[in-house]
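Lay summary. Proteins are chains of building blocks that fold into shapes, and those shapes determine what they do. In this project we predict the shape from the chain. Here is one chain we studied, written as its sequence of building blocks.
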Amino acid sequence: MKKIKTQLIHKVEFYDLDPMNVVWHGNYIKYLEAARCDMLSKIGYTYDNMKNDNSAYPVATMELKYIKPAEFGQELCIETTLEEVEPAMIISYLIKDKITGEKLFKAKSMQIRVDINTKESLYTVHENFAKKIEDYRE
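And here is the predicted shape, written in a compact code that computers can read:
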């Protein structure tokens, strides 16, 4: 499987800050979800496509590493890389300052394909998703 790498630019909003005026740690998960949705959209296989294929990809594990806090108004570049899809979807993330390129946060998620009706774990990629990955051009 080829790795797919995408980027999403996100500007830190005031409502994302904690009392210390830096991004509250839990909001990084929200940024990862936005980047994951953006990547899937660029591939052409969104959550709606998964649902139509009777599949879901719930998060099984996440690894998070906070390097340096993001601040109000800072523009972030979120790099998302689809590493694997079998036996699970593995995505790595890197959040950097858009201007300086300084690393702020790293993460990795593992998501297992599940049959929506039976809730059975499926350790193969759906053929429609595999085709979209194969056809993807940057």
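What the prediction tells us: Strands lie at 4-11, 55-56, 59-66, 75-84, 89-97, 103-111, 113-115, 121-122.
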